[in-house]
Amino acid sequence: MRAHTAARRIARSAGDPSEEAAALNGLGAALAMRGRYALALDTHATARDLTDRSGDRPGHAQSLNGTALCLDGLGRTGEAIALFTSTRDMCVREDLTDGEITARFHLGLLLSQEGRAEEAAAEYTAVRDLHRALGRDLPQAHAGVHLGGVLLDLGRVEEAVAALTDARAAARRSGDLHRVREVNRHLRAALLREPPDGD
Questions:
Q1: What is the pLDDT of residue 4?
Q2: Dist CA 19 CA 45 (whole Å)
Q3: Which of 10, 43, 103, 195 sits at a 20 to 30 Å CA gap from 89?
Q4: Contact 16/28 with Cβ under 8 angstroms?
Q5: DSSP 155
Q6: How far, CA to CA in Å, does 61 sit from each of 57, 90, 138, 147, 177?
Q7: Which are the contacts of 177, defined by CB distance < 8 A and separation ≥ 6?
């Protein structure tokens, strides 16, 4: 928090609104991690005002995603889902891939928690595919694990196994052995639920 506050002070003195907004978004995320959601909301709102004035669209998307996370932290899950959805759509229109990925991933989490597994699966699929297109193996594996989980919840075991097998390949490419072991645990659990051939 001190680092983000210092970075904001430097950016403000340099007259750089984009850097100031980035520091504020970082500070907002740090505040949210400490459970100080109301203050984090105000911080992201200030960042949003700066990005509106400067035309910094990636920073604007970041502040919106941060705001949605705070709303969820405050128990305002419906509002969070609505904001993640509108942020996702804005990012798609404006080709803001990182903002889209963030919005879709957290939207998947919330939809899954709300029992909306079909919608969550669509979001996780999009996140996985975006990371794949960007050559990001580790986050692709992470999204694949979440996708496999919601597909299992839906009883779509074959698709879950395929998603987790794909996630394992991505994890292996990344060289992260911890992630490989994690995916293997999920894959074993999915295979145990898969009926034998012919059943």
A1: 83
A2: 15
A3: 43
A4: no
A5: T
A6: 6, 8, 23, 24, 33
A7: none
Check residue 194 and report its DSSP letter.
Answer: S
Tokens of residue 129, six digits: 């595919």
C-alpha span between 66 and 150 (Å, rounded): 24
Q: Which of 87, 56, 92 is nearest to 24 (CA)?
A: 56
Distance CA 105, CA 81 (A): 11
Q: Which two tokens stand for residue 15?
A: 């007259």
**DSSP per-residue letters across 1-54:** -HHHHHHHHHHHHTT-HHHHHHHHHHHHHHHHHTT-HHHHHHHHHHHHHHHHHH
Tokens of 87: 């942020």
Closest CA to 39 of 70, 82, 72: 70
Neighbouring residues of 112: CB distance < 8 A, sequence distance ≥ 6: 120, 146, 149, 150, 153
Mean pLDDT of each 10-residue bin along the chain, 199 residues long: 85 88 94 95 95 94 97 97 98 98 98 97 98 97 97 95 97 95 93 60
pLDDT score of 195:
53
Q: What is the reported pLDDT for 187? A: 93
